[in-house]
Amino acid sequence: MMVLWGSLAGLLMYLELVYHFVGFGWEEFRPAYPAALIFAWTGVETLLIGALRGRIKRVCFVLAVCFPVVWTGAQIVYLRIFRQPLLWEAVVRGGGDALANYWREALAGILGALPFLILLVLPAVLLGLILKRRGWSPPDLSPGQMIKTAAAAPACMAAGAMVMEVGKSADAEYYEDYHEFYDPLTVARTMGVLSMLQRDTVQEAAELMETVVGVEMAWNGSEGAVGSGAGTPGYHLAGGFSGPMVQVADRFQEDMAGENTGQAGEDTGQIPGESPGQAGNVTQPSHPQAFSLDYVQLHDLAENDHQTWLADYMEGQVPVNSNEYTGKFQGYNLIFLTAEGFSTYAIDPELTPTLYHLSHSGFVFENYYVPLWQTSTSDGEYINCTGLIPDGQYSMRKSADNNMAYTLPRFFAEEGVSSFAYHNNSLTYYDRYLTHPNLGYDFKACRLGELSEEEWGDKIFPMEHPNAWPASDLEMMQGTMSEYLNLERFHVYYMTVSGHMNYDFSGNAMSGKNREAVAELPLSENARAYLACNIELDKALEYMLEQLKEAGQLERTVICLSADHYPYGMTEEQYEELAGKSLKEGLDQYRSSLILWNAGMEEESVHITKACGSMDILPTLLNLFGFSYDSRMYAGRDIFSDREGMVIFNDRSFVTDALVYRKGKDPIWLQDEFGSWIVPQEGREDYLAERKKEVKDRYQFSAYILQENYYEDVFQAVQPMGEPGKS
After folding, report:
1. What whole-number distance in Å separates Cα of residue 591 and Cα of residue 344?
2. What residues pair up with 493 in beta bridges, in sequence order?
3. What is the rounded distance in angstroms from the CA atom of residue 490 to the CA atom of residue 686?
4. Beta strand 612-613 with 368-369: parallel, antiparallel or unpaired?
């Protein structure tokens, strides 16, 4: 019995150590819970194998040895490719997509991880050889041994439960990561791949149970962080590392003394003076950016605790006020791009002159971040298009059946403006043929995917090389712009793909196409190939501007571009080589560029030092285009408002104008341009606690909006004069 149990437990412990070392080094590993889980798991396996007889016993033993090796190997490869653990939802929902589109990346990932995969397989092979040489086979357990095993395994389970109870009582982050706000990457990094597998399996089972039989289980979705925000006013801070700073230390101390009594994130009611992101004072009285909501009806519509929490939360929020940029682009066209794998370091005055021009004029955001989410590109699109934080994996897919009443196309439609969306991949990838029409777009792609030409052929736009991988962004522009250029007004959304990994000259068609332009650069192939494929994006933007100018639309069109994620197809060392500097400080890896440009701003560029991120794009655009919108509908905030900047990351790390907080690390407190701390020493503990609470609330808000299809309730509770897009 002990040989069997010890062999299985020892194998799992070895696999955990290899996985952790390969994926994360030795940092942050907490062995208590995974050790208890391993002994409990292998105890159950020992009991099962010992009770079986004959051939089925041997088959089960082989499976108990081989499955963890194969699964851990798959986790290592997936982590190295996507920087996220492999979850059941990705296997079930994304398996077909991955095999059809990512086989090159998977092959490269397997080859790159081959030494570690051999390390994983080696002990299993050695174990088999040793046991075979000794003539050992899985034993038949006696009744006494089965009783001992049956008693010992639950004791290990109880030990694991005790670890969690201690974490709950101590309000420890590992308990929060595992139970309240499940973050698979953090769980895998701190508690091991088996702990992540257990948690993920329970969650999938809970969601399946709810779907099939309508039973809601406690593990479905996040549980914690209720309330309506932290307890101090929002500070009018200008965050970051450069540019003019607002003097806020005295105001912070006044707030802490109780002279201002609003909740975190509330407006003070004062019209803000000149600050980063604002060229001068507001010229007209500001007004709340909010609909008239019937909160009685909103509470009456609540059918569960989640919906009640949402009603309470929204009622407790103070809307963002309008500002001097409200309506700056009213009546204009908008072309909005989510650029695959785009990074600040793809911008070069000679290699990518159009990107350089657009990013260095118009609005220039000096502290802009793009977090990496669990379903990298799809989640990046989701947060760009909805202003909501993704909830687990495949949030965009999950939204396909929801009422998405407060997205850009819905507001443009109220003004009679058509909205188009294009992607130079297949219609079916990430189910965009369902999700994007639900956002309000007329969506087209360059390939059908698994759909029939008879039914979907009119949703294909022409491209010279539609099957290239990755396909050309320039060809996408050439095949689509004629559809809308002659309209009086338009809103267009593009999801690009030319910047997709892998970054090499043999498997990346766009890198190969533009290879000559980067041939002489003193960089590795990976860095040169990355720059080369982004030259194609630059050509696409150059063509776009030329066509807009030729059609007489350039002056009245706004260009907005943000990444879906940083180029995680590079290792940390390769990305730092591209950047030409270390990116280990704080959350610098996720710094990026937001392009927000109009030809009329050539002589009046505005530099914004406020901390901001991709979740802020939608409310910022709604404000700029003068739509009557409700700022409480989103996790993000209008960047030009007087709210403190905040960027939230997948593991609930965050950046504000005063602080960079990375979970598991010491906070980095920021100074103003005069070298004074933005938050004085005596106020830091309260400030950090309040911001953590605000992060949890915004995370919770976004999750429940998606899970509960809550915009449907909000839509019913909006008073007639507050409908989307109407003043």
Report:
1. 8
2. 336, 421
3. 47
4. parallel
> If you ran DSSP here, which 8-state letter would residue 374 be given?
T
Strand stretches in 534-638, DSSP E: 557-563, 591-592, 595-598, 606-608, 612-613
AA identity, residue 705:
I
Q: How far apart are CA 236 and CA 258, in angstroms?
A: 17
Q: Cα–Cα distances in Å, from 327 out to 280, 332, 548? A: 16, 10, 22
How many whole angstroms separate alpha carbon 602 and alpha carbon 605?
A: 6
- Kindly list the strands in the beta sheet with 612-613, ordered across the sheet, starting from the edge strand earlier in the chain: 591-592, 368-369, 612-613
HEC sequence for 235-276 = CCCCCCCCCCCCCCHHHHHHHHCCCCCCCCCCCCCCCCCCEC
Which of 282, 279, 283, 257 has its CA nearest to residue 267? 282
| Tokens 């100018």 found at | 549
Could you tell me the end-to-end alpha-carbon distance of the chain, in angstroms, rounded to an integer? 75
The CA angle 181-185-187, to the nearest 5 degrees, is 65
In DSSP terms, 671 is beta-bridged to 677
* Residue 24 in tokens: 């994360």
SS3 559: strand
How large is the angle between the packed helices 376-386 and 617-624, nearest 10 degrees?
30
Which residues face 595 on adjacent strands? 364, 561
Distance (Å, whole) CA 326 – CA 308: 32
Residue 224's φ and ψ, nearest 5 degrees, are: -95, -165
3-state class (DSSP) for residue 369? strand
The DSSP code for 677 is: B
Q: Quick count: other Cβ atoms within 10 Å of Cβ 56?
A: 10
Strands across the sheet containing 418-426? 442-447, 418-426, 490-495, 333-339, 557-563, 595-598, 363-365, 606-608
Q: Whole-prediction pTM value?
A: 0.83
Cis, bond preceding 502 (omega within 30 deg of 0): yes
State how far the Cα of 71 lies from the Cα of 91, in Å rounded to an integer: 12
Residues 6+ away with beta carbon under 8 Å from 102: 81
Helices and strands in the chain, H and E counts: 27, 15
In the three-class reduction of DSSP (H, G, I as helix; E, B as strand; rest coil), residue 595 is classed as strand
Whether 569 contacts 341, CB under 8 Å: yes
List, run by run, the mean pLDDT of 10-residue segments along the chain (727 residues).
Answer: 77 89 80 87 82 81 87 89 84 61 71 83 76 66 75 83 85 82 86 88 72 52 38 29 31 37 35 34 73 93 96 95 96 98 97 97 97 93 98 93 96 97 96 97 96 96 96 98 97 98 94 97 96 98 98 97 96 94 93 97 91 98 97 97 96 96 92 93 95 96 96 88 48
CA–CA dist 345, 355 (Å, integer) = 11
